[in-house]
Amino acid sequence: MNKKIGFIGCGKMASAIINGVISSGFISKNNIKGSEINPEFAENAQKRLGINIITDNKALVMDSDIIFLVTKPNQVAGILEEIKSELTPDKLLVSIAAGVSTSKIENIIGRQRVVRVMPNTPALVLEGMSGVCKGSFASENDLDFVAELLSNIGKVIKVTEQQMDIVTAISGSGPAFFYKVIEDMARAGEKLGLNYEKSLTLATQTALGSAKMVFNRGETPVQTLIDNVATKGGCTFVGISVMNDENSEKLFFDVIDKTTQKASQLGK
User: Fold this and answer.
1) pLDDT digits (tens, 9 = 90+) for 154-205
2) Of 10, 175, 169, 170, which is closest to residue 99 (Cα–Cα)?
3) Which CATH superfamily is domain 174-266 in?
């Protein structure tokens, strides 16, 4: 892959993507460049990533075929105004800014090819989950390319723009929700008399193994996996009954619903 990729912003998420595509051989590190306006940040990122990091966003765009915008949502408009004179129809802009729609980006930069991505932090251990959608002027090939690139740091699904806030809630914010469940299970074990670290190991490995079982289930419904463990009258059945009595389904619906609403508000 001979295209040049530039990253505006070289923090944790950009670093995960850069390391993933380099280690996989998807692209040579010589074809990747980053920009950080702060000279100290740029120097540190260059040492950490082993690629050229400059302090000029416009120069980065001029020298790149694909530009990843990896910044906070409130910085997007200013950066787009800064670089839009250097964006040409042959360049692809990929935004990872939560809540910022492709239409809002297009309103600033015009008829430009834009793909929007919602990744998550497990990309740092190459187990990320990314949702991708395309703007009005991007092609299916553009979307396929970005999906292939991101597959080097985990799994990818294609969605519509209207579904991106749900993706943000489930997978973007989701790691924190699973950390909370793991922590609560570990603390329960501690309160009942088991060492916290041992309880945490039990909860964490069980979560990891259970997730793999779901991915490997084939056509088997998740409910069947639950039933296979929760034999009627057994101890797991009692635990599931408590979850049902406490209406855990409504709890998690409310969690995802409220988070989706907040994600939607970020773009307004």
Assistant:
1) 999 999 999 999 999 999 999 999 999 999 999 999 999 999 999 999 999 9
2) 169
3) ProC C-terminal domain-like (1.10.3730.10)
CA distances from 67 to 14, 33, 112, 115, 162 (A): 11, 10, 12, 10, 23
- Summarised one tens digit per residue, pLDDT across range 82-116 is 999 999 999 999 999 988 999 999 999 999 999 99
User: Which tokens sit at 144?
Assistant: 């396929």
Handedness of CA 77, 80, 84, 89 (dihedral sign): negative
Q: How far apart are CA 181 and CA 207, in angstroms?
A: 9
Specify the pairing of strand 128-134 against strand 113-118. antiparallel
Which of 83, 68, 7, 17 lies closest to 41 in space, CA to CA? 7
Choices 3.40.50.720, 3.40.1190.20, 3.40.50.1450, 3.30.1490.20: CATH for 5-164: 3.40.50.720
CB 125 within 8 A of CB 92: no
Residue with tokens 């790691």: 175
CB atoms within 10 A of CB 100: 23
Place of tokens 């530039």: 6
Distance between CA atoms of residues 188 and 111, nearest Å: 54
Residue 129 host element (H or E):
strand 128-134
Among candidates 123, 121, 115, 122, which has minimal Cα distance to 150?
123
CA distances, 139 to each of 43, 72, 135, 149 (Å): 36, 26, 8, 16
Total residue count of the chain as it appears in this document: 268
* pTM listed for this prediction: 0.90
Calculate what percentage of the chain has a pLDDT beyond 70: 99
